[in-house]
Amino acid sequence: MNQQFMKAGTSDALVLNSISKQAFDSDVEVGAVSPGGPPGYQSVSFHVKMARMNHLFKLVDETGVIIGGAILFRQGDTLNIGRIFIDPQHFRKGYGILMMREIEAMFPDVKVFTLDTPVWNIRTNALYSRLGYSEVKRSADFVYYSKKR
């Protein structure tokens, strides 16, 4: 596999928005009660704004096709992984693991990575646990994870 994880530009927002919508709407297959996602998940203007603020990232395959994305927020020594999403046609091929490892490698000076995911999402909860993230708290709707270096 020869994928690259890199900062996305505003010109990538339309494609990343489409992938985000498909990925989050597919969560009905893993526990969501209806299609939907986090705020802005299907908004091109939101993705453009995230790109302009340097929070939007993309995973591209060896041919340059975008297959996934992430929205990341850095505060000092902490990086919050706001969301990651993969094109559903590329699910279960290891890209989520690859993207998470690339995110960690891209920020070698970060001491703590944080994220949250819905309680009902069996796919993402299993992924984050497998990658060494520890549950730090849980609400009725979300599980909050962190990973320290």
Task: Kindly describe this structure.
The chain is of the alpha+beta class and 149 residues long. The chain has a single domain (4-148), classed as 3-Layer(aba) Sandwich (Aminopeptidase), CATH 3.40.630. Helices cover 29% and strands 32% of the residues. The chain is built from four helices and seven strands; from the N terminus they run βααβββαβαββ. α1 (13-25) crosses α2 (44-52). The protein is globular.
Question: Which keywords apply here?
Answer:
single chain; 149 residues; alpha+beta; Aminopeptidase; 4 helices
How many domains make up the 3D coordinates? 1
CATH superfamily: Gcn5-related N-acetyltransferase (GNAT)
CATH top level assignment: Alpha Beta
Looking at the structure, the CATH topology is Aminopeptidase
Proper CATH architecture: 3-Layer(aba) Sandwich
Mean pLDDT across all residues, rounded? 95
Flag low-confidence runs: none
Order of helices and strands: EHHEEEHEHEE
List how many beta strands DSSP finds: 7
Helix content: 25-40%
Q: Mind sketching the topology for me?
A:
Blueprint: E1 4-7, H1 13-25, H2 44-52, E2 56-60, E3 66-75, E4 78-86, H3 95-106, E5 112-118, H4 122-130, E6 134-138, E7 142-148
Parallel strand pairs: 4-5
Antiparallel strand pairs: 1-2, 2-3, 3-4, 5-7, 6-7
Helix pairs in contact: 1-2
